[in-house]
Amino acid sequence: MMIKKLLVFVLLTGNSIAFAQTKKNDGTLKLWYNSPAENWNEALPIGNGRLGAMVFGNPAKEQLQLNEETVWSGGPNSNITSASGAAIPALRKLIFEGKFEEAQALADVEMFPKKNSGMIYQPVGNLFLQVEGAEKATHYYRDLNIEKALATVTYQAGGVHYKREIFSSFTDQVMIVRLTADKPGKISFHAGMDTQQKGGVRTENGKLILSGLTSDHEGEKGQIRFESQVKVLAEGGKASLQNNAWVVKNANAATVYISIATNFKNYHDVTGNESAKAASFLDQAIKKKYAAALAAHIKFYQQYFNRVKLDLGVTDAVNKPTDQRIAEFAKTNDPHLAALYFQFGRYLLICSSQPGNQPPTLQGIWNDKMLAPWDSKYTININTEMNYWPAEVTNLPELHDPLFKMLKDLSVTGQETAKVMYGAKGWVTHHNTDLWRITGPVDRPYAGLWPMGGNWLSQHLWDHYLFTGDQQFLKEYYPVLKGAAEFYLDVLQEEPVHKWLVVTPSNSPENTYVAGKRVSIAAGTTMDNQLLFDLFTKTAKAAEILKTDTDFQAKLKATLTRLAPMQIGKHSQLQEWMHDSDRTDDKHRHVSHLYGLYPSNQISPYRTPELFDAARTSLTYRGDPATGWSMGWKVNLWARFLDGNHAYKLITDQLKLVGGRVDGVNTTGGGTYPNMFDAHPPFQIDGNFGCTAGIAEMLLQSHDGALHILPALPDTWPSGAVKGLVARGGYVVDISWRDKVITHLKIKSRLGGNCRLRINSNMKLNTAGLVAASGPNTNPFYEVPETKAPLISAAAKLNPVGIPSSTAYDLKTLAGKDYTFNTN
């Protein structure tokens, strides 16, 4: 449990505004700074799933950079044409003949997207507050309290103490800024707006209105109309509209309401009324008292956030601003910063992925650029999937909903791509999609010619079922799984040497295998085979549970026996390609062939020790330095290798300061910006989510037939506590430990069934009433797939695998019952 101590307050006269100063042993989860943001990567993010803003916190000129999740360039479209797949037969022939360079050259000409490579997620604009008398502010402080989803700015000017509170309301669907002072009549400011979009600012019906139209892109006309409506309510003094701005004079307090809406209804319908929708949100919000609005917002947010608590200890480092703590993390003992980073990832997911909304993009819902890096789309060869890795294990399963709804859309739009491009049934999508649910190849063929994106996304459906046991959900989404599987049954090709069934043309995402040349095109890459194994196994199991499609189950199981196996290559590595082309000097950021270790469960120290050792060899060769999101993935991988110290080393690499105004900042590679955003660089939110999932994976694993308690605990966290993590099978787990010994373990069973516990042998636990485990895992909601894991093709003698010893126990559980164990 997170230990909280009282904040020390400076009580002021007048309105008694309290200025929080961080003091020793303050366990509050907040990012705080003693200066305003000078750039976007220092500003603080707020969001309610749909509306996002970056808060800069300048006393004299506050800036809120505004986003709404459906503000995208272009409009409803498909990026597939009748010529999109014309070269595929020739490419297959060249690949099977081993003419890889010729195949790549042909793909580079013929398989470049015939239409567009997807649209761009774009900003709405900015709200500026020009505040009188704040130019020489002192005693400055700003924070983002992630226990309340509330940003605060305080300062002193002219003998007056000022305070701002800013949040994006989950309950009222507007953003709210509250300005107060400790003396009456001291609030005076101008509120204006601007935008980079085609549009303008006007005043109408007692509101400041910014309206615009998104941009054209790659031949697609911008069709999203958006409108932001701003209302200011002053207490005392006067608020009026003048020269396209709100002007507030001599108020005691003022509240600014910002509403934003678009004409987007769904990916093929943009007939909504953005003005009426924005007005509806705003008109309802201003009827509510500020205190009530804030309380409702916090209550809604905390129903998610408070489910998980993590306490790794608090040191004097909390007395320092967050950017300084990041800069010093590698050299200091600051376990609270690791816990803060973990919870910040959960904060970002809650704020960017609410049920009924869109999934978070490469940048969540926060982007200030008209032409964002990689268009801020959905990159689905790792990044979008990584965004949702924390959802189930950190007790936020409802927040998976936007991804699932997007999958339903893609299973419709992807049918055209399957039919036109491949002549196949079912549905498919490649390595990118967008608001308009495009499913054809995107960008250059060396990355874009990868027909596995829908497959990987679909794995989240089965994972959600494993955690929740929700058969109604499984029934609703089974057609998505089936359609994805149908596509591959149609397109699999028999390769000429071993007669394995493989996907071709494809690639191992964004990596190349011909030294010195940009050749990626391939057949039967290891990741493709792993994804197929999972999709076919899970779809067959889903059909079995739902008692449907007996013949289809049989076809899937028969096809499984003909898939290419995982292979161990000449360097004792897990091969990335069907042919043994790995290089020991390959430091590529993608480690796609290790999907079978994480997030999948095909590679295990207990079931497949030789593959486990080969996978570890591959990751060792690949090295630690990487982009931000890649380091997040590697935290999870080293946790699966049961190596907590190496996982922690990657967390340390991730928490290196990029940019900012602190000495010793990291200027190369991945890391973390002053506002705790992941630095790819530039900012990509998946690194935050990946690292949050990785920390959870270090504390609890449930993929390998058991609940493994503290499987990868690093030496730097000898004592701590975590509450509310969730395991497959519907188990909620609380753990406390001291000096690396478990002191308390509580398991709540949501579904009942057999719970297998695995506890490292050096950890004491009172196991009275438990029996030593034997036989297969019998939990009906989580099973190691009945189909045997792919065979090993060994090309070198392997070294023994060093696996920490553990003891397993079986616990029969009842739904809704808690089971608590303490040390001897």
Characterize this entry briefly.
Helix content is 28%, strand content 23%.
Mean pLDDT: 91
> What portion of the residues fall into strands of 2 or more residues?
15-25%
What is the terminal-to-terminal distance? 21 Å
Instruction: Choose one word for the global shape.
Output: globular
Rg over CA atoms: 27 Å
The number of strands is 34
- Helix and strand composition category: alpha+beta
The level of helicity is 25-40%
Residue runs with pLDDT of under 50 for 5 or more positions: 1-24, 775-801
Number of helices: 18
State the strand order across the main sheet. Answer: 3-8-9-10-11-18-15-14-13
Largest sheet: 9 strands, antiparallel
Topology (SSEs and partners):
Elements: E1 8-11, E2 18-21, E3 30-33, E4 44-47, E5 51-55, E6 61-68, H1 88-96, H2 100-110, E7 125-131, E8 138-145, E9 150-157, E10 160-168, E11 175-181, E12 187-194, E13 198-204, E14 207-213, E15 225-235, E16 238-241, E17 246-251, E18 253-262, H3 274-285, H4 290-305, E19 309-311, H5 322-328, H6 335-352, E20 378-379, H7 383-387, H8 389-393, H9 401-422, E21 432-433, H10 445-448, H11 453-468, H12 471-491, E22 493-494, E23 501-502, H13 526-546, H14 550-560, H15 609-622, H16 628-640, H17 644-654, E24 671-672, E25 678-679, H18 686-699, E26 700-701, E27 707-709, E28 720-727, E29 731-738, E30 741-749, E31 753-760, E32 771-772, E33 806-813, E34 817-822
Parallel strand pairs: 27-31
Antiparallel strand pairs: 1-2, 3-8, 4-5, 5-6, 6-7, 7-12, 8-9, 9-10, 10-11, 11-18, 12-17, 13-14, 14-15, 15-18, 16-17, 19-28, 20-21, 22-23, 24-25, 26-27, 28-29, 29-30, 30-34, 31-33, 32-33
Helix pairs in contact: 1-2, 6-18, 9-11, 9-12, 11-12, 11-13, 12-13, 13-14, 16-17, 16-18, 17-18
